[in-house]
Write a structure and sequence with these properties.
10% of the residues lie in helices and 46% in strands. It is built from two helices and 18 strands. Strand 14 and strand 15 form a beta hairpin. The chain is globular, with a radius of gyration of 25 Å.
């Protein structure tokens, strides 16, 4: 017993000292003189189709493939939409931790797009208390699909100016807890309306074909993420087009999805009424209602590679 008591005292002393050290380290980590930045507001740089406030790191390449199938009401002949699919392949690269660029090509309207994402503010606590993350994203998209000439059945490619659209978007996001994040996306789009036929063009006084009417579209997006486990989260996004700017044939874009993280991959499965997979196509060219038969099943795959200096 005489030998056991000193041994117990030594063990208790070591445990107490260990706890003291842990408490000291915890206080140091929460040092008010140090800025602590919020991480993983969203799991990926995109919520579902639209951008999130997340940036990839410097020297990181994100290869991203997005798929959309046809609406479920296509029936059994088209296997409820699975026989018909559109996709976007994109490449995103982190120039710095706060600036990334990306390019992509969509099969829908054979559209090429490019963008820059600049993180202006980042949510943080400590020495710098910032309640939100703020990003700015300008995007340009060019449609390369030829249009049908109704009278002769021919197809033509309008001038570049008639096929180009521009998007300006701000993203204001906040991580409210370890499980819940939300963001707002005020968006302005300037560019051509969706035009499938040359008959929708107009003629000037010399009967020369002019491009489609250009409409300015202003929309407000909202998106959220609910983390339900270490590797799984539920996502949703919605874009409301203001009535004064909304084309008659358009519907507001809605999407619900699940994110699954597997190592260096992020796999997303979702339902949406939108076929487009860039900002202009997503917001300005959604022509299906949010009803079960009109919904499209889709999935996204993201794989990151370290190709530059950390």
């Amino acid at each position: 017993m005489k030998k056991i008591l000193p041994a117990l005292m030594v063990i208790i002393y070591i445990n107490v000292k260990g706890q003291d050290t842990t408490d000291i380290m915890s206080r140091l980590e929460k040092d008010p003189k140090k800025t602590e930045y919020t991480t993983a507001t969203f799991k990926s740089t995109r919520v579902i189709t639209g951008h999130s406030v997340e940036n990839i790191g410097q020297g990181v390449l994100d290869v991203r493939i997005l798929h959309r199938f046809a609406p479920l009401n296509r029936g059994s002949y088209d296997f409820f939409g699975f026989d018909i699919a559109s996709m976007r392949m994109g490449f995103d690269y982190g120039i710095t931790n706060n600036i990334m660029v990306g390019v992509g090509r969509s099969t829908w309207q054979k559209t090429y797009d490019a963008y820059v994402k600049v993180r202006i503010l980042r949510q943080s606590t400590g020495a710098r208390n910032m309640p939100i993350t703020l990003s700015y994203i300008p995007t340009v998209a060019v449609r390369t699909e030829k249009l049908r000439l109704d009278t002769l059945g021919e197809r033509i490619l309008p001038g570049l100016g008639d096929r180009t659209s521009f998007t300006q978007q701000l993203i204001i996001g906040r991580k409210f807890s370890k499980s819940f994040s939300m963001q707002l996306m005020p968006t302005f789009i300037f560019g051509q309306n969706r035009v499938d036929s040359i008959s929708k063009y107009t003629l000037d006084k010399d009967n020369i074909i002019k491009g489609p009417r250009r409409d300015n579209i202003f929309a407000l997006g909202v998106a959220g993420r609910l983390k339900i486990s270490k590797r799984v989260s539920l996502n949703a996004e919605y874009y409301y087009q203001f009535v004064d700017h909304k084309p008659k044939s358009n519907y507001n874009s809605v999407a619900f999805g699940v994110d699954i993280e597997t190592g260096g991959h992020v796999f997303q499965v979702h339902l949406t009424n939108s076929n487009g997979m860039s900002e202009k196509l997503l917001i300005a060219d959604t022509d299906d209602k949010w009803k079960f038969g009109y919904l499209r099943l889709g999935f996204n795959i993201s794989r990151v590679f370290n190709v530059g200096k950390h």
